[in-house]
Amino acid sequence: MKDRTLPFDRPFLDRVVQDHPTPFHIYDEAAIRDNARAMYKAFSWVPDRNGGPGGFCNYFAVKALPNPHILRVLREEGMGFDCSSIAELVLCERIGVRGEQIMFTSNDTPLSEYAKARELGGIINLDDITHIEYLAAGAGMPELICMRYNPGPLREGNVIIGKPEEAKYGFTREQIIEGYRAARDLGAVRFGLHTMVASNELNPDYFVETAVMLFELAVELKQKLGIRVEFVNLGGGIGIPYRPEQTAVDYQRVSDGVRAAYGRIVKPAGLDPLPIVLENGRVVTGPYGYLVTRAIHRKDTYKHYIGLDGNMANLMRPGMYGAYHHITVPGRQNAAADHTYDVVGSLCENNDKFAIDRRLPQIEIGDLVVIHDTGAHGHSMGFNYNGKLRSAELLLKPDGSVQQIRRAETLDDYFATLDLL
Ligand SMILES: *Cc1c(COP(=O)(O)O)cnc(C)c1O
Which of 35, 57, 282, 288 maximizes ligand 1 atoms within 8 Å of its Cβ, making it the mutation to test the pocket? Predict the structure, then answer.
């Protein structure tokens, strides 16, 4: 099986670790920019509200990688930001992002968070029909309002992604028309339409089907209520090839399919121009982050273990979802993968394993071990269980230099919330 490539080699990492001890996440800025440009290029046909070019936007799901340096890079590439909590809103505020560059897609939302989203002028994307009244009474109905549609059983039998009717999010088919009517009655005059029904989906056709579903709903809103939505937000959920045998989603293929549906459904209904936006997180940064660790122990009992200086606090996905993350041992890429290891961290939980029964080259104590695809839901999912501290984050810049963009936590951070007296 082909090994995955790294944007750095062992001598480079040996220099980096002199200033930045392992473990750390490192993000490849040039690759993040190239990927963002490919996405925007594929969707460059999407019209803006006035029929001009450049109507496409990806609102980066901040939860995937909430680091201001990364957000600045993405803003330079034209992205907006999808927030779902007060911390994510404030992070945007701190780097000077305001207004309709923010999409606030939350659920079970406290009023204080709606109020903050209102204050920043973000686009509020309501999760439930009862939130219309809740928002209007508590924070005021904004001029522009968006609603999250959950198709429920209507999406059953299309593609296997987990059932929308089991998901806690969004308005039902019956509620959504009523929702727009109610929001209009409470003063909303501009409208967006949203759905998010996929997660880590690698089938490009799925996103085309989602576009068809929202286009048809937009037509229905116009026919039933005379409401013309200003944009449709197809959500995020574009997957990434965590496994070497998987293939990345081809943006152009998704875009071509969406464009054909646009011509078939949106134009004849007189809804052109209709901007199309996305809110992907994973596919934007996931493949371009790496968790760099060092092997500190080998243990041979009933199985063969490699113990790393990183642990689940740095990357939850394998322990939480049994997710596959590829592992490369820099400097040993050409060695045969003729050993079978469980690659583990130090948590007192037996699911603190980055890999189980993984075929790898022989690993020696002191080897650097790189875990792939940690650029989304990696550091950000970290926790402090067992008193484990979250690592630093580094940025590999296009000129080859390395910048620390978050320091590692210290014991003082850990104790800061305790009253020891
Ligand atoms: C998490 C999330 C996203 C992004 O999902 P990805 O799988 O990272 O693309 C987008 N929108 C909402 C509402 C989310 O909760």
Answer: 282
pLDDT of res. 160:
41
Residue 157 has pLDDT above 60, yes or no: no
Distance 307 CA to ligand 1 centre (A): 32
Low-confidence winner among 89-93, 158-162, 233-237, 308-312 (lowest mean pLDDT): 158-162
pLDDT exceeds 90 at position 164 = no
Confidence of residue 159 (pLDDT cuts 50, 70, 90): very low
Residue nearest to atom 1 of ligand 1 (CA): 61
Q: Which atom of ligand 1 is nearest to the CA of 283?
A: 9
Helix ranges restricted to H, 186-316: 204-225, 251-261, 282-285
Atom of ligand 1 nearest to the CA of 125: 13
The CA 237 to ligand 1 mean position distance, Å, reads 6
Work out the average pLDDT over 7-24. 98
The domains located in the chain, with CATH, are 10-26+286-415 (2.40.37.10), 29-284 (3.20.20.10)
CA distances (Å), 308 to each of 24, 74, 290, 319, in order?
Answer: 12, 32, 14, 15
**pLDDT of amino acid 220:** 97
Q: pTM, whole model, 2 decimals?
A: 0.97
Number of Cβ within 10 Å of residue 23's Cβ equals 23
* C-beta contacts of 248-255 below 8 A and 24+ residues apart: 248/202, 248/287, 249/201, 249/202, 249/203, 249/204, 249/207, 249/283, 250/204, 251/38, 251/39, 251/41, 251/42, 251/43, 252/42, 253/204, 254/42, 254/204, 254/207, 254/208, 255/42, 255/43, 255/45
pLDDT confidence of residue 156: 55
Per residue in 356-366, pLDDT tens? 999 999 999 99
Tell the residue nearest (CA) to atom 10 of ligand 1.
Answer: 236
Q: Return the best residue to mutate from 126, 279, 377 for the ligand 1 pocket (most ligand atoms within 8 A of CB).
A: 279
Contact 82, 103 (CB under 8 A): yes
The two three-digit tokens of residue 3, written as one number: 């090994």
Residue 272: is its pLDDT beyond 50?
A: yes
* Residues in the ligand 1 pocket, defined by CB under 6 Å: 61, 63-64, 82, 84, 105, 196, 199, 235-238, 279-282, 376
Whether 139 shows a pLDDT value over 60: the answer reads yes
- Ligand 1 centroid–CA 415 distance in Å is 32
